[in-house]
Amino acid sequence: MAFQTNVLRNGEWVTETISVQSIVKSQQVDAAPQQQVIKAPRCGLLTRTIVESPFIYFILPVRIRSPHHNDIAFIGDHFVQVRELRRDGRLKDIVRRVNFGSRIRNACVVGDFDINTSEGQDAIDFQPPIKLEDGQFGFSSRLPPQMLMVALENGDSLFMFVRSASNGKPEFVTTRFPSPKQGLAQPGFHLAVDPSSRYMALAYAQDFFVVYELESRERLEEKHTNGEPLQAPVRSFRLRSVNGVIHKITFLYPRPGDKNHIILLLIVVRKRHSRMIIYEWKLGDDLKMVFAEDKHGHRLPMENQMPLLLVPLTVQSAFIVISPHHMAVCTECLHGPPNFETIEMSSPPPTSTHHGRGSPIWTAWTRPFRLASYFETRDCIFLAREDGVVVYFEADKDSTVERVTPMDSFNCNISTAFACVFDRHADVLILGSDSGPGGVHKICPRVPVEFLEALPNWSPAVDFASTNQVSEWYDADKGKRTAQKGPLLRPDRLFATCEGGQKGSITEYRYGMKANVAFHLAFEPGIKQAWLAPTPDGYHIVISMPDSTSVLQLPSDFSGANLLGANDTFYELTSSTLAFSHSTDQFTVQVTTRKIVLSGPDKYRCFPYDDFPVPHGGSVSDACIMGDCIVVATHNSSSNEFQIDVFKMELPHLGLGHVRTVEVEGEVTSLVLTQDFTLFVGTSSASGPAVVRCSLQQATNSLTTISIPKILVEHTSIEDPSSVEAIGSIVSIDNTIFLGTRSGEVIRVTTNPNNNIDVSCEKFGITAAKLSLTHVTGKSNPVVLVCCDNNLVHLSVNPRSKLLRKSRVYPIDPSNLVEMAPPIQYASAVDLPSEEGITQVLMLSNDTILLTELHSVPGCVPRSIPLGGTPNKLIYSNTLNCLIAAVNYGNKATLAFINPNSGQNIGIPVDRNDIPVDFVYGLGKPGDRIQSLSEWKYYTTGGMYHYLLVSTSAGRLLILSTKRDKTSGLIRYWMRWKKEFERPVYSVVGYQDGVVFCVGQTIRWEKLNEVDRKLTHLKSFELESPATTLRVSNGKLIAYTTKDSLLVLDHTSPTPSLSNADPMRRNGIHMLEIAGPDPSDKEGGITLVSDRECGVGGLFTPYQLAERECEVVFEAELTASIRKFQRARSRPVWEQQSQSQSQSAPKYGRLVATSDDAETLGMSLNGALHHFAALDLKTWRWLRFLQNLVAEDGRSSNNSNPEPRADNGLEMQVDGDILQRILDEDDEEGALERLVGRHEQRFMQLLQEIDGVGQIGDDRNKAFGVAYEVLEYFLRPVL
C-alpha cells in the first residue's frame, strides 16, 4: 500500500509517493545498547592462624601433672601453654592447647600444694614419669594435686589437668561446667578461689556473682580410683546480685585452727563510692542461706577508693589495699568497722621503660613459695609496677607490714602476668609484659638479680612488612603472570613493629624448631666435622680439620676447654678424622686418612692402612662405622680407581681384621652401612651420579647400581636431572635412603614390599646438602638433619601419610633474641642425658663449636631488633635493601633505616647542604606522629627517581630523597618538597608524575611540576570519613575509609566521581587486592578488607561498570581484627620452585593470589599472624564439609546436616584452625575415618570432585590417603 504526501527536501516542499512500511520504519526508536553483564566470581576462603599471639594475661604456677613437676601455666586470649622450670632456670614446653571455642576471660588454680622437705628432697630433685594404669580411661594412678580452672567468655568453666596419653605424650584432660545464667555481661570478669580450694567465686562485669562449692580432693581421688567418669568438680552453686558494680572479689585467709571458716570479700562501687562487703560461713553450709541477706558493708576511706589490687594476707584475715597513690593494711574487718593502717613507702620514681602519660600503676602481685609453717605466723609478697619496679613486702603475725624492700628495677614492662616460681635455693620471678618482651629472673640472697631467659612478646604489633618485590597482584606492564627469576628463590622475610616506648622493636617472624645454645667455643677456621665423647672426668670433643685432628678436653659442667697435645692423648692427630664412634663401655673408634685407632678403658691400638691389603700409596677419602664393622673408601692414584674395604673389630681385645674388598666404578663420593649390613655407596662417573647397593651378609659382592638421573626422570617431574651433582652424604632409615647431593638436593628413595621404589627430590639450596641421622629423645623413629646453604633443616617422616615433615632449625640464645641465627655447616646428635622432647645436637658454625638443645615441636622463633623508641609504621625498600621505620623518640617523630641482618640504623638525616642534622626538615616536631610511609618511583624523560612519601598527624606531607654511600653502606636522606595542611594527612600514594593523599576527609590529587619543581593541586574529592589506605588499580583510585569501607573513584576526568562502593559500611582498617579465579583477567580481582569487628570480607569490584556496588564474595570471622594485609613468598626454600615446574603449580583447587603466587598474610594487633587462601567451589565444599563434621564432633546430638551452603557470606569461610585438629590427633590411625563415620559416601563423593585428586572409585583406603594428603597440602607451614 502506497500514497502521496508533501515532504520537505532541501528547503522546498515536494510531492513524493511513499509506502506504509517506510513510514513505520522511520518511527522505530533505536534500541538502547545492551548493558554489559559482569558476574562476580564464586570462591571460598581458607583462613588459619600460623603464628599465635604471644600476649600472656596470666602466669600461674600449678602442679598440673604431679607433685614432682615444677609446671607453670601461661594463659593468653585463646591458648593455655604449660611449661616446666628446669634446674638450669630455662623453661621447657610441655603441652599447649588452643581453640577453646570462646575467648579466655580469666583463670585460677584449684587445689593446694605444700613443699615437703621431710623426705630430704624437693619437688625438683625427683621427677618420675607418670605411670599409666590399664583402667577404663587410661588415667595416671593418682590425680595431680592441682587443677587449672579457665573461665571462658561464654560463661563456661573448664577444669583441666595434664596426664600422659597412650603414646607417652602429655595431654589435657578437660571437664566443662556450663554457665549458671546466660545473657549476663562478661562472665568471669573477676575470679577467686578460697585458700582451701573448696569454694570458687566468679563475678560478672556488673552486679552479679556466683559462688561454686567444689568437691574435696579426697572425693575426687576416690571417684578416680573407682573408675567413675570424670566430671566437673562442682557440688553446688549460688547466684547472687548486688546493689552496685562489682569492682574486686577475693577470699580472705581464716585464722589458724579455723580452716573451715570461709571469708568472701567484695568491693562494690555504689553511687561513686567503694564499699567492702564480707560474706562468711562454715564449710558445708547451705549457700542459699549464706547469701540470703543483702549486706551494705562498709565504705572504704577516700584514699583507698577504687583500689587497683587486693592482697589477702595469711595472718589475721587481713588484706592489703593497693591504690594508685596509697597502700594500707585492713584488719579487724570481720567484726565491726575495719581498721586501715597506712603502709609507709617512698614510691620509686618512674623508670625509663615507662611510656605512659601519668604515673605508673601497680599491676600484679605474687606470693613466693615458703614452708607451710612460715605462713602460719608471717607472710610475704612481691608487688609489681608496670614500669618494671618490684617491691618485696613482709608482714608479721599481727599483720603489720614490717619490711618494704624495693628491688632493682627490671628492664621490661610488667603486666598482670606476674608469678614467683619455686626453686630450691632462690625465688624465680617470671615477668610478662604487655608491651615488648618479658623475662625470667632468679633472685638469690645478697647477690644481684640474675637474668635467665627472655619471654618473647611482640605485641602490640601495629605495622607489618615483607621483602616481597611485587607490590601489585597483577603485573600491568606485562599483562600476564610473572615469576621471580633465578636458580633458587629465597623466602621473603616478615617483620612487624612492636610498640613499647623505649623498648620498642622490630620483630622478625621465623617459624621452625628452636635449638637453645647451651655451650659455645671459638676454635680455628676450617672445621670439617666434630664429635663429642664422654670420659670418666668429662668429655672429649674430637675435631676434624682438613689435614689434622684436634681434641679438646672439657669438664662435666662444660665450664672450660683444654687443647690436648700429642703426648696427652691416644688419638691420631696428624691426619684428618673421617669417622668416629664411642660406646657406653668407654670404647672409641677413630678412622682417619692414615690409620684406625681403637681404644678401651685402659689401653689403645693403632692400625695403619699399610698393614692391610689396601692399595699402597692410595688415599682414604671416606669412611663409616656401624656396630663392629668399619668401611673405608680408598683411591688408587696409579690406576685412578676406587675400592671399598671392610674391616671387622674385636673391641674387647682391640683387634681388627680385613673382611672383604668391594670394587666400584667411578669416584666414591659417600658411603653408609645400615644396621642390616647393607652397604650404599655414592659414586660419580661420566654417566652421572649413582648409588651402588651391596649386601655384606652375602658371601659374594652382588652389586646393584641405581642411576640417579634415570630414577629422577622416571619418578619425578624435575626438568633437568643433569643439574643434580654427585651424592655427598647418605643416611638410611628402615627401607628408605636419603641422598644429599653436592648441588643442594635431598633425594628420598623408598623400597616398597613389592620391590618397587618411590622417589622424591627437593632442593634445599645451592651448596652441598650434608645429612646426618639423629635419634630424638622420647621418640622411636629417627630423624634426619640437613645442612645446606648455612641453614639447618629437620626432616621426619609422618607415620600416617609417609610424607616428609620439614622444619627449619634456629640456634638461639634464649637470653638474647637480637642476634640472627648463626650459619650452620654441620650438625649431629650427641650422646648426652636429655629430657623427653629435647635432643642434644653438636653444631659447627664457621670457627665456632655449639652444643645446643633441640626442641622437637616447631613454633614461632621470633627475632627482636631493638629501636630505643616507639615504631608505628614500617616498609621494606627493595631499592635500598633495608627496612624503613617511622619511630617516635620521646614525642618527636623521625625515620630509621634498619639493616635487617645486623639490626643497625644506617640512616643519616642531612639538610640540603648534606650536613648531618638530628631530624630532616619537617620531622622532629614535638607531638607529631607519622601517619603514612611509602615509596614513590617518579618517572620523567630524564629517568626514574626514587622518593619516600611521609605524612604526619600535624598535617605535613613530605617528599624525601635518599642516597646510599657505596663505601660505608650508610643512607643519607633529606627533604625535597613539603606541604602543610591544617588537618592530619592520613595516607599518601605516588602515582605516575604526582601523588594522591587524604587530608582530613578530603582526597587531593597533586602533580609534580617539572619546570618549577613544585606540587601543583589538580583536583579533590570529599569523603565522609578519612581514608587510611589508598591504591591505584585499573585506572581507578581505591580508597579504604574508617567508616565507609571501600570506595572506588574514577579520577580520569577533571572532576573525580564515585564509581563503586562496598554495600556494607564497615569500620575499615586495611585492604589488599588479590587475584580472582581467573588470574589472567586483570579486571577480575578480589579485594580483601578487614574491619574493627574481627571480620574479613572479599569484595568483587566491577571496574568497567560505573555507579554499581561491589559484590560480596565471602565473609570470614577471626579471633582478632586484621590490622594489615601483606603479600610474601614466605614458604621455605624447598617449596620456592620455579613457576614453570609443574609441581609448584596450584593444586587441589587452590587459587593463586598474586602474579608471583605469593601468600596472603594478615597481622593482628595482638601479634598473631593469619594466612588466607582462595579456594574454588569444589575444594571449598569438601573442606567446609569436614569443618562442619569437626564442629559437631563430640556433641550429644549429631543429627545436624554437615552439607555446606554457598551463601556468599560466613558459610564461605573454611577455618583451618578447626581442620588442624584432625592432623593434631597424635598421628593416630583412623582420626579422619572416625570423624567421617556415616557420612563416608558423601565424603568420598565430594573428594572425587576436587581437581587433581584423580580416580578414587570405591577404594576406601586410597580415598582417606588422598584426603590426608590434601589436608596436609593446605595446612602445611607457610613460613
From TrEMBL:
Which InterPro entries does this one have?
Beta-prop_RSE1/DDB1/CPSF1_1st, Beta-prop_RSE1/DDB1/CPSF1_2nd, RSE1/DDB1/CFT1, WD40/YVTN_repeat-like_dom_sf
Instruction: List each copy of the RSE1/DDB1/CPSF1 second beta-propeller domain by range.
Output: 540-797
Domain RSE1/DDB1/CPSF1 first beta-propeller residues, every copy = 56-443
Region of interest: Disordered: 1129-1150
Which protein, by its recorded name, is this?
Answer: Mono-functional DNA-alkylating methyl methanesulfonate N-term-domain-containing protein
